[in-house]
Design a protein that fits this description.
This protein is mostly helical. Helix content is 81%, strand content 0%. The chain contains 10 helices and no strands. It has helices at residues 2-11, 15-27, 29-32, 34-52, 54-58, 62-85, 97-105, 109-117, 125-153, 156-185.
Amino acid sequence: MFTLAVVAVLATPGPTNTLLLTSGVNVGFHKSLPLLLAEAAGYAVSAGIVVIAADFLSSLLPAARAAMSAVVGLYLFFVAATLWRKAVTVGARLVVWNQVFVTTLLNPKVLVFALIIIPHDGGDSARYFCGFIATVPFVGAAWIALGALARRRMSRRIWAAAPKVGSAVVALFALSLMASSIRYAGGG
């Protein structure tokens, strides 16, 4: 049940998965593989911090949630703008390691993993945490493979537009986070 929950949340489309998919389209499967380490590292660092600070996070004030959502939203707007304005050339890396790391580090999914899916009672927390991190590259590789498959199936004109589509999707996630920051700030 634990692995199924991890896979279900990891497979849900989000900013990190959009970057992995975009990289698969842009440079193919093998050249995108180093991004899996960035994703795993981002989740490990972020989930580790959240697990350690779980008591503090459970009592966050609405204003702190609003600020956190706004910061993540602004970062995602930056990533979306970067993807949008970069020229599409064959083999150019539009998605780089630090983008995937920071996007994953700030991914709201980490709260689901750290506070809900990874059990905190008993002595098995470390084992579950390691199981979670070990699952990350497999799901991330599926997103890259999907992008690489799309790259092979698309015409060059459609393929060239893929980073802009990825940029638009990341911008939608940013808008969603900015809207939630306004909702949190309003106390509702």
